[in-house]
Write a structure and sequence with these properties.
The protein has about 625 residues and is an alpha/beta fold. It contains seven helices and 36 strands. The two termini are about 40 Å apart.
């Protein structure tokens, strides 16, 4: 079997090195994607960063070359800067142009001088960060704009009062990130990467931008569909609302208003959606929303958004086994474990096209779901999954490891819960809340997973039930492959390499049965590995034909397990990642190890509705 290699237009293969118009130098000391050659330091990830709350006429992207310095944590501020860093790529990444680690004893500083566009004059100016890992202080013209702790959630500061007269405004950002020397959520990052643990990510790793808004403006919305009632519920939270202000909600299709409602700020608008077009992987239909703040008949702020009419729920099959239902019908969900790492950008894809490529290739392979593994992506990632119909299971990034793990359900005496400090517990709760709030409006997300494989797992029942109460519109997978408690909607087994499942007669009456991880078949491809030795998979092969033959036995086995009670399965994994060579694709995305057309045939059989009555 020949590998499927990507066909990239010749025009995209520009030289990697010092960019003609900047001092940015690409650090190419390991493999990279072809998308890296498309990175333009003058227009880095230029797309509008917040598609679920869009004001596209009054914003400016601040990605690009900033100054940086790494200094001892004990020092107050750098006396001079070390050079240029390409934002929003983490300082450890090749695409940052730096490629240095920071660690718990040092801090990373950024500095940039910006101009405020004339279109933002006479408006309040908000400074937005998509994500910064981990503890952040932001200064504007030498004054503190605000602080934030959390590596995976977006945050903003109103900097209007800190702006000075004239065209130039100075922004400084101070970041401290202890990686695995601290108790904060950090996912797969470790200071000494090996095995299933990867390179640290420190600093800014999602888009930085400014936005001009009215004094009274919409801060955020919460949108929840109900396909049974044929309604969409919308809450809009406002800054500086006045007593007589109203919020107008309009549902649109193709520019035509279908229905509307008007409410007080902070109240819940219930808007009818008659004859709803239901969203699914095969038909990802999205409705448009327009949300306006109205004062004495005049619109003072307006945002655009969207939603889908879709429902995820637990149901029961003819044998009394709990199943996962989409839009009140059973749909087997199958997808890869997806780490969201890139050899050149680490947490950050080089371009929008790179981000879309991963999702598109998985769609071509016949997957209808992705398990986003202990990492959170950009808003545009979830927006794209909404558009093309890719279901998502969203993990909470883990941290503060060290407790005992029992991977099998129904066993007492081995698994233990982590005894977190109040500080550690506070970090977890604060960030999980922020992540759920930030991602609530994306219809692609159907499952929340608070814990994975007992990594930092604590107060399981309390955390799970809090998660269920906070968002009753989705299912909660309490502990994927972790220490099992009688809580949440699932019993989730991890089993490598071949498929297996929890026993339906023991667990199937009360819980949805899923195979949260399996597979991990390894195939190193010469010239496309991150390192020259110590590469590994859960079972390794020498040829793609051998791996495909083994993989086919896995899908055959799943066809036997689905009628017995299996509702979903997650294969490890989308791509190779650093020392792991168990991806459907190589880490540099240049080789697809098994033909997508063959995978599509194998996977399509799993969705046969006749398998489950």
């Amino acid at each position: 079997m020949k590998f499927n290699k990507l066909l990239i237009p010749l025009s995209l293969f520009i030289s990697i090195g010092v960019h003609a118009q900047t001092n940015w130098t690409f650090k190419k000391d390991k493999i990279v994607t072809d998308f890296a050659s498309q990175v333009n330091p003058s227009a880095v990830l230029p797309e509008y960063p917040r598609p679920q709350l869009s004001r596209e006429n009054n914003w400016k992207n601040l990605n690009g070359l900033w100054e940086y310095a790494i200094i001892p944590k004990s020092n107050n501020e750098p006396s001079k800067y070390d050079g240029k860093i390409l934002v929003p790529f983490a300082v450890e990444s090749a695409l940052s142009g730096v490629g240095k680690t920071v660690g718990k004893d040092s801090v990373l500083w950024y500095k940039n001088n910006i101009t405020i566009p004339s279109s933002l004059k006479n408006k309040d100016v908000l400074l937005h960060f998509g994500a910064v890992d981990w503890q952040t202080e932001v200064y504007v013209n030498g004054k503190l704009a605000g602080k934030h702790e959390g590596g995976f959630d977006p945050f903003s500061f109103n900097i209007t009062a800190l702006l000075k007269s004239g065209n130039t405004q100075e922004i400084k950002v101070k970041v401290w990130d202890p990686t695995d020397d601290g108790p904060q959520p950090r996912g797969k990052q470790v200071k000494k990467p090996e095995g299933i643990w990867y390179t640290p990510v420190t600093g800014i790793w999602q888009t930085v931008w400014i936005e001009g808004v009215a004094k009274t403006h919409i801060i955020n919305t919460k949108q929840t569909p109900d396909i049974d009632a044929k309604t969409i519920s919308v809450i809009a939270n406002l800054a500086s609302a006045q007593a007589a202000d109203l919020v107008k909600i309009e549902v649109l299709e193709g520019g035509k208003v279908l229905s509307q409602n008007q409410i007080k700020p902070g109240a819940t608008a219930v808007v009818p959606v008659n004859n709803p077009k239901l969203w699914s992987p095969d038909s990802p239909f999205l409705y448009d929303l327009k949300i306006s703040v109205v004062r004495q008949g005049k619109v003072v702020d307006e945002v655009k958004s969207y939603f889908a009419m879709r429902k995820i729920s637990a149901g029961t099959d003819a044998n009394g086994i709990k199943r996962m239902f989409l839009n009140n019908k059973f749909l087997f969900q199958y997808g890869p474990l997806d780490q969201g790492f890139w050899p050149d950008g680490l947490y950050t894809p080089p371009t929008e096209a790179a981000m879309k490529f991963d999702i598109d290739e998985l769609k071509k392979m016949g997957f209808n779901m992705i398990r986003k593994h202990i990492k959170v992506e950009s808003a545009r990632y979830y927006n794209y999954c909404d558009k093309i119909g890719m279901l998502l299971w969203q993990d909470m990034p883990s941290g503060d490891l060290g407790n005992g793990w029992e991977p099998n359900p129904g066993i007492i005496g081995r698994g233990t819960e982590q005894k977190r400090t109040p500080e550690s517990e506070g970090y977890y709760r604060k960030e999980w809340t922020a992540i759920m709030d930030a991602l609530h409006n994306y219809p692609c997300i159907v499952v929340w997973t608070p814990f994975n494989e007992a990594w930092g797992q604590f107060k399981t029942v309390e955390i799970t039930e809090w998660t269920m109460k906070k968002d009753p519109s989705r299912l909660v997978n309490s502990a994927s492959g972790g220490n099992f408690f009688n809580t949440g909607h699932f019993v989730d087994l991890h089993h490598y390499p071949q498929p297996a499942m929890p026993r339906p007669d023991l667990f199937g009456k009360n819980s949805i049965l899923v195979l949260g991880e399996f597979g991990g078949l390894g195939l190193p491809v010469t010239g496309h590995t991150w390192q020259n030795k110590n590469n590994w998979g859960y079972q390794s092969f020498k040829t793609a034909d051998e791996m495909l033959a083994k993989y086919k036995t896995f899908t055959d086995r799943m066809i036997e397990l689905i009628p017995a009670g299996l509702s979903a399965a997650v294969y490890t994994q989308t791509t190779d990642v650093e020392g792991e060579i168990n991806g459907y694709m190589t880490y540099d995305r240049k080789v697809i190890k098994m033909p997508s057309a063959e995978l599509l045939k194998l996977h399509t059989r799993l969705y046969d509705a006749s398998l489950v009555k």
